[in-house]
Amino acid sequence: MQDDYIIDMRHITKRFPGIVANDDVTLRVKKGEVFALLGENGAGKSTLMSVLFGMYQPDAGKIYLRGEEVKFGSSDDAVAAGIGMVHQHFKLVDNFTVAENIVMGVEPKKRLAGFLPCVDIKEANRRVKEISEQYGLAVNPTDMVGDLAVSQRQRVEILKMLYRNAEILIFDEPTAVLTPKEIEFLLDIIRGLRDQGKTIILITHKIEEIKKVADRCAILCRGKLVDVLDVASTSVQHMANFMVGREVKLETTKGEPHFGKEVLKVDHLTVRNADKFEVVQDVSLSIHEGEIFAVAGVAGNGQGELANTIAGMQDAYKGTVTLDGKDITSESVRNRIEDGVAYIPEDRQGMGVFMNLPLDENLALRRYYKEPFSKGGVLDHVKIREFADDLIERYDIRSGQGGRTITRSMSGGNQQKAIVAREIEQHARLLIFVQPTRGMDMGAIEHIHEQIIAERDRGAAVLLISLELDEVMQLADTIGVIYNGKLLKTAPASTMTSQEVGRYMMGVADND
């Protein structure tokens, strides 16, 4: 029946310069279900939900909420109508407490001396604690947001919606920055919200998570609605093929490794953070030509600092980093690039690209000062654009205005594709990949995995740092497991099971 649908979006079209983000999409969501929006990076998922949330106005189409037509002029209108949204990049104030962030704009008030209005922070703390306990979110209202882990910040965003009595909750790529354990906790939260009568819309490209938690799934491809499927009766392979528009390989295949000479040697490396705490402790490792060395570990165990130090973004406290026999421990980032180091960082927006530059200039960042992109100190923009056009086509980087697209306007997954393309095209001796497929759809993951293996097969040394244990097990020739800043175990990947690697990730060492 029509009354079953709490949301009814009819013939929604949304255009941006050079691209139709949503093309005549009709979508209906039932009250009390978990409804997943599945699609490749840039398929139009986030745009469609931003239209529902009042952040964009549709160029065509109508929206019905609980059977009544609505026109949201802003996200405040959507919130007032009972819709909440947790964005992929959180919108919190670090130097405010959890409760202060949650009640901001709708603060409980009291009067001092009977007439002076002020915020009733005691009541705010009480109410936030009550909602947190009701939904099993395990958040302390008096903690400073700046001190919280990523998963806890996400729970604060969920509490913001619940505090405002949201009946419909939209999650935009909620697991993109979470560890496997945190993902399971979040999925439990989503199930609990559904059980308490909330309607959930889950924007994602992770089919295995959809299978665990969603009731129905809509698949978008290049702005168009492909199909709406019953999750329980649809296979992962079928969803993947629909999403990408072709047959997708769910398993990565690679040949036997053929190691050459040593490319990278890290010797007794110790790294301190700003608080003088040793986040990397006496780490030694070696990577050869034709080898993928994967560092496995739970987030926050020093793997990010290890990669940054090898790439020159962070200083070593003790120990040495050697590339092809040359000590590069104290070299600048530019010199390391010239020596043959390519780096795909974990923080793609903070370290990987300049968000306000066009895509073509970001793609040329490693080479802009050399011929053919520069001669006599003058940039050749024609050559830069030709180079960018080639990479955009070969790496399937979705951008509305080609190389002139401002990078900030692209989806996170396509920003990541651009970074991977730029770094691989250096044909470096050493490639450092940190979380290379975070936030990527299955088609893009398949392509990046193929590129990593191709670099290994051409004789490059590859350092892969990933929180995805399946990714480590599929790609690695050698595995090093890091825990609390130390490499607890290093062994050929063929000799280790995922269960064994998982135990080391939790700090459980064997008898040897």
From TrEMBL:
Domain of life: Bacteria
UniProtKB keywords: ATP-binding, Nucleotide-binding
GO molecular function ontology, one term from the record: ATP binding
One Pfam family in the UniProt entry: ABC_tran
ABC transporter domain span: 7-247, 264-509
PANTHER family the record matches: CARBOHYDRATE TRANSPORT ATP-BINDING PROTEIN MG119-RELATED, GUANOSINE IMPORT ATP-BINDING PROTEIN NUPO
Name of the protein described by the UniProt record: ABC transporter ATP-binding protein
Annotated organism of origin: Tractidigestivibacter montrealensis
